[in-house]
Design a protein that fits this description.
heterodimer; A: 456 residues; mainly alpha; 2 domains; two-stranded antiparallel sheet; 4 strands; B: mainly alpha; 68% helix; 4% strand; globular
Chain lengths: 456, 400
């Protein structure tokens, strides 16, 4: 069926003047998020975004009630027929598209007011492939299989959050259940970040592209999760931040991640990973105390000299490097037991930190306050890192490997955490970049506008 | 020749130190009367204690064999885990040592659970399986930290002084043992002050008689964990204290029996048993470290982390071999504390009652088989303690 839809019959070669349609990549996920957003934001709609979205939330609740019952019907039909019926498939695809639009709008990942029907064409949009046969076993146990993905999605977007109507799961608990579901949504990491985005968009009339890409990743993961729950596909949600495409930061990054991990994991060290980490925890605390005093000295020195003294910079950079090694180890993002000195070039997951550069004295003076948003973003990513490690522990124990997606999303979180620490500890005054630019393909440049005809 | 002289001097020094550490207050040539256990306990009690302890003994034996087998296999395969480390020799040594301990813990787990099941079946403990596993897990975390410190000392010193690490290393371990004994009282959870005026007054009186400073008597709440009665003397110098488990302050133990317990623990402090324990530890640690350094030379010595699994095997073999000797030493100290308690309380009848209660409450076999006595008993048996009480009484009645 898939071949018939996307590929021309081999007996009828296309005429040479017709464009050849490329067959779809068999590895691509059947549910994808495409971002065509231009980052421009209307200050007026940003200011009133919460109120403006109320009708959309009401409509989501009403639609979700219907989705709950239709989901049960769809589950039985998919179990019997081995695939989701096309009308129901389209119904859920529209629902997921609508919730993604709504969350993108609410989180400032897109600007236009979304429609109520979940039609394609929104700047943060969802593409869903047509229905294909699904494993009946996976269908039978879908809600249990989906549990890890739901937890990770909840850590990012909120329990019923972006790209899906998980709130339907709470319908059997009555109104309070629905309320709880939405409360969880609002308590999610993205909700906190959207407050930061609100200020940024109001101030600049423009969404920071790193943050937009972070939201887009979360919305894509949420869409795939709820697509999996609603039987749009039996392909598991992909945590790899390789999709959707992301912007490359405009300025060079002073803190860069270097990943040479081969995904292999030793089952024995995975089993004891937390206890093996304890000795590093003790050393982290002891070193951290020294870094605290070094930070105070560094703050005064950087304020006076306009740059961090080389010795202090080296000492603190080694600590930041060491934290990356240790957290990569305990969160299963890398395999070998790390050393204790944060030496560069010794670990498969590490950061490169540039030497001391000139820093803006005003930024140095207010660094503690300026770093707060970065810490909030880092906290959200660390939540994902925690759950990735939790589920990765079981996977590593059984397979002796870490899934690529888990490893990459963890490495992204570690890089952002290292950037945040480097910023806070005055190693650089370049603000951390939250987008997964190292792991995703660069977003293609928008097409050049057609030149005006000369006679016009 | 020089090595022979040095070895002879070391052995002589060891023996002299052991002689002085062994000296105690139990009169030389004290003869214990022959008491039949059947004259003290009903047959059903003896049978129950024997049944209970038989399982515990064989579980112990199997655990020892499993531990030996695990560390022997690990000594062979352990070095391949070097590839799981990106750390230097010290960090890699830490990793290999922790993994060895972790494997031992993992393979002991079923036997530990079996023993817990047996204890629960005999109402010796109230701990649930989940609690036991979680506390064991955290305990393993503590062991991991300790072994990392040990590896820091051993592998770190071996980087500097090569195969002579054992000399400064063993002194460092003795220093750590002193430090640990000193701070241990602060690590015991759930301690409260003793609110039994009569018992506290008796403790003060005993302290005066023994010439001790005021030693705090604390109560550790172990309800919900175990029903076993116990008490311990802990700390050195200003940290000295006596810790009574809450189980021993409840019936069926009488006030006079509790006084015997307090006198026994104060006896440990009066006879400086904690200092002596550290001394004995030094006497075993120094030659033990020397043996480990010799054995591990075939793998490049302890400077090479690949030798750590073999070092672990050597340590465990030495520990098992030393167990009978260490048990002799601890039994000697406990007997001496019993003698001090009898002298202080002048109450052999209640001392005998206390030792009888241990058999009832803990299902302790008053007369275990010899092999079990040699390998497992850190205290004199119940029967021996009763015999000592009667010997003390006979001696008192006979007069000077």
């Amino acid at each position: 069926m898939q071949r018939m839809v996307f590929e021309p019959p081999p007996s009828e070669p296309p005429a040479p003047w017709e464009p050849v349609e490329q067959p779809p990549d068999p590895n691509r996920h059947p549910i994808r998020v495409v971002v065509t957003d231009d980052l421009e934001r209307s200050r007026l709609t940003v200011f009133f975004r919460l109120i403006l979205s109320i009708p959309l939330w009401i409509w989501l609740v009403i639609w979700s009630i219907g989705v709950f019952f239709v989901a049960i019907v769809n589950w039985f039909l998919t179990l019997i027929k081995g695939r989701s019926p096309l009308p129901l498939h389209d119904f859920f695809a529209s629902y997921i598209r609508f919730t993604t639009h709504l969350h993108a709008y609410f989180f400032f990942a897109a600007d236009p007011y979304p429609g109520f029907a979940g039609k394609p064409g929104y700047p943060v949009d969802v593409e869903v492939d047509p229905p294909v046969p699904q494993s009946r076993w996976k269908t039978l146990f879908r809600i249990f299989l989906a549990f890890p993905a739901i937890v990770i999605a909840a850590a990012l977007v909120g329990a019923p959050g972006g790209g899906g109507g998980g709130n339907t799961n709470y319908q059997d608990q009555g109104t309070s259940g629905t309320d709880y579901a939405y409360a969880a949504s609002f308590a999610s990491g993205f909700f906190l970040l959207s407050i930061l985005a609100w200020f940024a968009c109001l101030a600049r009339a423009r969404m920071p592209n790193g943050m937009r890409d972070l939201f887009a990743f979360g919305l894509r993961y949420g869409a795939q999760t709820w697509g999996y729950v609603f039987l749009l596909t039996d392909r598991y949600p992909d945590t790899d931040p390789a999709e959707p495409a992301a912007d490359v930061p405009a300025e060079p990054r002073p803190v860069r991640i270097n990943v040479e991990d081969d995904l292999r994991r030793s089952r024995l060290t995975v089993f004891f990973r937390f206890l093996l980490f304890l000795v590093h925890l003790v050393w982290l605390v002891l070193w951290g105390i020294a870094v605290f005093f070094a930070l105070i000295a560094n703050w005064f020195a950087t304020l006076a000299m306009g740059r961090s003294p080389r010795a202090l910079h080296r000492f603190i950079a080694a600590y930041v490097q060491y934290t990356v090694h240790v957290y990569a180890y305990v969160f299963l993002i890398a395999n070998p037991f790390p050393g204790f000195v944060g030496a560069p070039g010794t670990y498969p997951i590490e950061v490169e930190i540039d030497g001391p550069e000139r820093q803006h004295r005003g930024k140095t003076l207010a660094r503690l306050f300026l770093a707060i948003p970065a810490f909030l973003i880092s906290g959200t990513l660390n939540g994902v890192l925690f759950f990735v490690a939790f589920f990765g522990w079981f996977v590593g124990l059984f397979l002796g490997r870490m899934p690529l997606g888990f490893r990459n999303v963890g490495a992204w979180a570690l890089r952002y955490g290292a950037e945040t620490n480097a910023y806070f500890l005055l190693l650089t005054d370049v603000y951390p970049y939250s987008g997964p630019w190292e792991f995703a393909p660069p977003r293609p440049a928008p097409p050049e506008p057609e030149p005006e005809p000369a006679f016009a | 020749m020089l090595i022979g002289v040095a070895l002879a001097a070391a052995v002589a020094g060891w023996l002299v130190a052991a002689y002085f550490l062994w000296q105690g207050v139990i009169p030389d040539g004290l003869r214990l009367p022959d008491v039949k256990e059947t004259s003290l306990f009903p047959t059903s009690t003896l049978s129950e204690a024997e049944t209970y302890e038989r399982f515990v003994r064989w579980d112990f034996v199997v655990v020892q064999l499993v531990v030996l087998a695990v560390v022997a296999v690990y000594a062979r395969i352990g070095p391949k885990f070097v590839r799981e480390s990106a750390a230097g020799p010290i960090g890699t040594g830490m990793l290999l040592a922790m993994l060895g301990l972790g494997l031992v813990w993992l393979l002991q787990l079923p036997f530990g659970l079996a023993e817990l099941w047996w204890q629960r079946r005999h109402d010796v403990t109230d701990a649930s399986y989940g609690e036991w596993i979680v506390s064991g897990w955290f305990g393993l975390g503590g062991e991991f930290l300790f072994i990392c410190l040990a590896m820091l000392i051993v592998v770190g010193l071996a980087q500097v002084v090569g195969d002579w690490w054992w000399l400064p290393g063993s002194f460092a371990f003795v220093g750590l043992a002193l430090l640990f004994t000193f701070v241990f009282p602060y690590l015991i959870p759930g301690q409260k002050s003793l609110h039994r005026p009569a018992l506290a007054a008796a403790a003060s009186s005993y302290e005066q008689q023994l010439g001790l400073d005021d030693i705090p008597i604390k109560v550790q709440d172990v309800s919900g964990e175990t029903t076993l009665p116990n008490a311990e003397a802990v700390g050195l110098g200003p940290t000295r204290r006596v810790v009574l488990w809450s189980t021993i302050l409840r019936p069926p133990f009488t006030l006079d029996e509790q006084k015997v317990v307090v006198a026994h623990e104060l006896g440990h402090h009066a006879r400086k048993h904690l200092w002596k324990s550290v001394g004995w530890y030094a006497l075993f640690a120094i030659p033990g470290a020397f043996v480990i350094s010799r054995v591990t030379r075939r793998r490049g010595g302890m400077r090479n982390p690949e030798a750590v699994p073999l070092g672990l095997l050597t340590l465990i073999v030495l520990s098992i071999l030393a167990t009978p000797l260490l048990n002799v030493i601890t039994r000697h100290m406990e007997a001496e504390a019993d003698w001090v308690a009898l002298t202080l309380t002048q109450d052999p009848r209640d001392a005998e009652g206390l030792f009888k209660q241990f058999t009832y409450a803990a299902h302790a076999d008053p007369s275990p088989p010899t092999w079990s006595y040699v390998l497992m008993e850190t205290h004199p048996t119940g029967l021996q303690r009763i015999e000592m009480a009667r010997a003390w009484q006979a001696r008192e009645e006979a007069g000077p």
